């Protein structure tokens, strides 16, 4: 198994949301806009899968995650701080899932 195959949800996120063309489709280059696009396009299961993959990646590469990310995903996209990117995704995904749960439990 290739290293990249251990993180299918990160691989999908990297492929679709960190591509060189993505800034053409987003209202800004801010990470928040990227995460908002991800939230609108993905299911709850995909979001939970990404959270799990990020946790595993952080466990597997506790040192320089940015360097490891570039190596594992063979990414040519300039990412200055993968930990900050993961934190942004994690925060917004958890808030989104909590909001979905509370709105679905209301009559």
Summarize the structure.
This protein is mainly α.
SSE diagram, text form:
Blueprint: H1 8-17, H2 31-41, H3 44-60, H4 65-72, H5 82-104
Can you describe what's shown?
By secondary structure, the chain is mainly α. It has a domain at 31-104. The protein contains five helices and no strands. The protein has helices at residues 8-17, 31-41, 44-60, 65-72, 82-104. α2 packs across α5. It is globular. The termini are far apart.
Strand segment tally: 0
What would the principal axes of the Cα set say about the shape? globular
- Rounded to an integer in angstroms, the radius of gyration calculated over CA atoms is 14 Å
The biggest beta sheet, please?
Answer: none
Class inferred from helices and paired strands: mainly alpha
Uncertain stretches: none
What are the main properties of this structure?
single chain, 107 residues, mainly alpha, globular
